[in-house]
């Protein structure tokens, strides 16, 4: 039997970041995942995430950021509504910074995190390990594994994604609703240079984001639309899809050309009503998933694990149990508040732009145009997007180098 202080289930970016945050501590930690270990290969850019300043500060402190060759900065953002005069623009210059954010390859982030963990003697990574059963009590957790020795741990952290096996096994309740949207994701070659500008247009069927990559003529798209239109777009020949995408983007980057396979993912909001059960705690997508229209999902998850690591470190320094319920509830209250705020904001955006009533469209246009002319309001919006506001973990706060 493997006797641990902490077992982290899920070797995604959140789980690996938590392990790295607690590496070099006196704790005995294992990261468990049913899939093979990530490999250090050239970025494929199949799935990317937008990371903000707070996430960069966190990853820089861990020595990870410097190795992310795929991190493509963007210095401007342009948001507008199709067939409307409403638009708003943001720039790094206005915010007094060099970049507004970065587009990062998800798999490269995982592989770099894992490579940093390999040298940490207090962390074991157990890949291709499947859990058969979890026994959760008020004292500890017992994990029965397929063809491997059982694991006994003081604290079990579920970082195993939106369809968390841990959450389901322990029957931790979750609220969810289907956005009735599919996200179409692909790399797109552009005629015009993107000029490090992230663009998003609100179409009648949903938002289309054009995220700039390191190549000045390459963007990653996230096109959120109805399942019916998503199926129609995926069935199109490449040339026909290129025309449809170019028209949807209003040709802001000239003619667009599909550069990769067009993948589709269903969009659902999930929110666990309880993030703590005895000595088990949920983090990142296991606790919440949100609509990708603001690109904040990865940032929210990274701040979850940074907050949990901060509280665990405080327990160690005060010689208190790392699975103390009061501490776990403190984490839950802290991060629930942040998640609830973002979920509510994303739903308001989606509902607000989803209605095509001409009067509402006029109101939206006026509102966006007014906001664009109010520096104080724009700064408040961007402070949240940059990760410079809210109750941030210490390692991610402004001023940390």
From TrEMBL:
<keyword id="KW-0503">Monooxygenase</keyword>
<dbReference type="InterPro" id="IPR051205">
    <property type="entry name" value="UbiH/COQ6_monooxygenase"/>
</dbReference>
<feature type="domain" description="FAD-binding">
    <location>
        <begin position="4"/>
        <end position="343"/>
    </location>
</feature>
<keyword id="KW-0285">Flavoprotein</keyword>
<dbReference type="Pfam" id="PF01494">
    <property type="entry name" value="FAD_binding_3"/>
</dbReference>
<dbReference type="InterPro" id="IPR002938">
    <property type="entry name" value="FAD-bd"/>
</dbReference>
<dbReference type="GO" id="GO:0016491">
    <property type="term" value="F:oxidoreductase activity"/>
</dbReference>
<comment type="pathway">
    <text>Cofactor biosynthesis; ubiquinone biosynthesis.</text>
</comment>
<comment type="similarity">
    <text>Belongs to the UbiH/COQ6 family.</text>
</comment>
<protein>
    <submittedName>
        <fullName>2-octaprenylphenol hydroxylase</fullName>
        <ecNumber>1.14.13.-</ecNumber>
    </submittedName>
</protein>
<dbReference type="InterPro" id="IPR018168">
    <property type="entry name" value="Ubi_Hdrlase_CS"/>
</dbReference>
<keyword id="KW-0560">Oxidoreductase</keyword>
<dbReference type="InterPro" id="IPR036188">
    <property type="entry name" value="FAD/NAD-bd_sf"/>
</dbReference>
<dbReference type="InterPro" id="IPR010971">
    <property type="entry name" value="UbiH/COQ6"/>
</dbReference>
<keyword id="KW-0274">FAD</keyword>
